[in-house]
Amino acid sequence: MKILVAVKRVVDYAVKIRVKPDKTGVDTQNVKMSMNPFCEIALEEALRIKEAGFAKEVVAVSIGPSQCVDTLRTGLAMGADRGIHVETNTSFLPLTIAKILKSLAEVENPGLIFLGKQAIDDDCNQTGQMVAALLGWPQATFASKVVLDKDKHIATVDREVDGGLETLCVDLPAVITTDLRLNQPRYASLPNIMKAKSKPIKKMTVQDLKVDVKSDIEILEVTEPPKRKSGVMVSSVDELIEKLRNEAHVV
Amino acid sequence: MMMQRLRRSEEFIRFGCESLINLRPNKNSVPRSVSGFVTHYDTKGKLFESNVGNHYNTHRCLGRNLGMLQQYKCFGSSSASQIERKPLFSSLDSKDVSSFKEILGDKNVVEDEERLETANTDWMKKYKGSSKLMLLPKNTEEVSQILQYCDSRRLAVVPQGGNTGLVGGSVPVFDEVIINVGLMNKVLAFDEVSGVLVCEAGCILENLATFLDTKGFIMPLDLGAKGSCHIGGNVSTNAGGLRLIRYGSLHGTVLEAVTANGNVLDMLGTLRKDNTGYDLKHLFIGSEGSLGIVTKVSILTQPKLSSVNLAFIACKDYLSCQKILVEAKKNLGEILSAFEFLDNNSMDLVLNHLDGVRNPVSSTENFYILIETTGSDETNDREKLEAFLLKSLEKGLVSDGVIAQDINQASSFWRIREGITEALQKAGAVYKYDLSLPVEEIYNIVNDLRRRLGELANVMGYGHLGDGNLHLNISAADYNDKLIGLIEPYVYEWTSKHRGSISAEHGLGVMKANEIFYSKSPETVAIMASIKKLLDPKGILNPYKVLPHSLFSH
Fold this sequence. Notes:
The complex is a heterodimer.
Chain A: E1 2-6, E2 9-11, E3 33-35, H1 37-51, E4 57-64, H2 68-78, E5 82-87, H3 94-108, E6 112-116, H4 127-135, E7 139-149, E8 154-161, E9 164-171, E10 174-178, E11 188-189, H5 190-196, E12 201-204, H6 237-246
Parallel strand pairs in A: 1-4, 1-6, 4-5, 5-12, 6-10, 7-10
Antiparallel strand pairs in A: 2-3, 7-8, 8-9
Helix pairs in contact in A: 2-5, 3-4
Chain B: H1 2-17, E1 23-25, E2 37-41, E3 47-51, E4 61-66, E5 69-74, E6 82-84, H2 94-104, E7 109-110, H3 113-120, E8 134-135, H4 140-153, E9 157-160, E10 177-180, E11 187-190, E12 196-200, H5 205-215, E13 217-218, H6 231-236, H7 244-247, E14 254-258, E15 264-266, H8 281-284, E16 293-300, E17 302-303, E18 307-315, H9 318-331, E19 336-343, H10 344-353, E20 367-375, H11 378-395, E21 400-403, H12 407-418, H13 420-427, E22 429-436, H14 442-453, E23 458-464, E24 469-476, H15 481-487, H16 490-497, H17 522-535
Parallel strand pairs in B: 8-10, 9-10
Antiparallel strand pairs in B: 1-3, 2-3, 4-5, 5-6, 7-8, 11-12, 12-16, 13-17, 14-15, 14-16, 18-20, 18-21, 19-20, 19-23, 22-24, 23-24
Helix pairs in contact in B: 9-11, 10-13
């Protein structure tokens, strides 16, 4: 079985981001970029499934500018067998990404598609679900535990939902998106980094995949949330009540 | 990484503030063993007993009153160093307190026992003074007035910043008045073109780093205590830290200081080059508050570079570590920003005593090295680092290693190196030595000491290998004189024999005040004493520290 893992190159989660002065987006110049933490977890899970003998190949795919190759190299250094880079300089929204992944899935025929539950730059939490819908495959999102049954061709997935844990059984092929507590991703070790140098990364374009990238959504403006105002010291309970009543209008 | 270090620094502060001392007069109690309790006699001969309570606070200072003399003995350093309070110093009286209140206002003259308790105790809880007064000046003028007064009254003072020093230099030995510059914490100016930052001495290093971060700059120094230490203290002690290898020492900083008699020496400038006369600022940098109180600092900051990479590698022996250092300097050259090492014992200690830490490398080896590069081109730097490491792997210098893929992973690697100090505190009694040695000798002292101490203690070696700076730490279940007798003066003599420094970056403080001769000649020290007498004739600034007591006994 082949596992396809989608990984996204995002601003490193520890970086303090700033909005560009022209309000078109977040400033990504001279800022550290890394693999989305949830995508790391997705890749780690795929690798563990391969090491357990349930899969033959793990393919990492990334969609974006030329620097995505760095992200794919990280994936290869962790242990993925090969990479696919769909090169584009436009920043695509989840639906377009989902269409691209669908086309890729039709070419590669994986038994499982792993994605992170959401990207930390847009927090959309949509791509995995959309891919499943476009392919007509079952989906198990927010996975905190994945157990495969090779013979019956199903996966049993624990999902972290608001009310607690939900366990689903999905037929393969399926789409699984990963949540924080699924695993702790491995470090990229030097011997693996060395092996990664000889692993292939295939370049493709959206035209190759025959995907219509026209988006129905246009980002109008990106602004910072309003700055927290400093508090006001009050000298008595009466003054507090007066302020709550007349200024904050909450009493 | 910032958040992790801030959290850790907060733990350090909390550590330092946990006051488990309970002083109550108890005439009938018997002095107990060193590891748990300490007896403290006051000037009237009454027996106070301090109950330490938990194994973290394994160290206390003992004050003994023999008649009129008040003596001071500290555990954890050579028992031979017994200090006597200089009788020439005046004692604080109520007139002094009201005079200070007139200068500073009532609020900033602290007599509150709890606050004094914290101010009297150092971070390691090894040294404890008995000051009755802490002053909090708000500006240089107030510092000048206080010092003028103290000089005229012959009142000894201790300049204090973040109180994170490791040699007992920031706390009183007896009843010196504490002058804490914590309220002088304003950033005065920042030039975004030259990168020069002008600020008051009481600014916390981490706060400065956060401020600079918004402007796209970084401080030229970084150390584990950044959440609490003040830049004035850093400059006064010529602090080293993790970035020294790249940005050099603090001797490039310019400053304003106040001398013992209240004279304000304004050497503050923002010029990069200024060769006009004797460069006096160097006297104040590293003199640990014994020549003057630093009130303002003008420091050159560095632009923040986006590409930071960190590798954690394992080596079989110390010889490989040295070779890797040489190769790293050659191959990584201008992008190398940190080179730290730790031995297996240190790694074990950290894994045993800290939570949420795992060995990044799958195999246990004898030595681990952290190599950090900082540059402006992500892809280029990455390739350079990878190429260097892979070559080292092929040559057999490196047995295994990992490269951090994001800031989170990098933080976890740094946690191991920076967590050693914390782990040592948790493990029991610790004897700390900070030595500069020729790189090829660094680990020999660790091995020699291990053979010498045998089963008695756990010897750990780690530190800034890139600077030739070893942090030698001996961990034992509790403090005992036999152990200290085996360690000192052996460590100092060993260092001296190899022309090393007995204090690479921690300073002399009170811990090593009498040991300077292991690293400096008598003639040199004599001139130091002359300079001290010149700038502080009455000797009121941070007495009993830095220079040997024998030079000042009357």
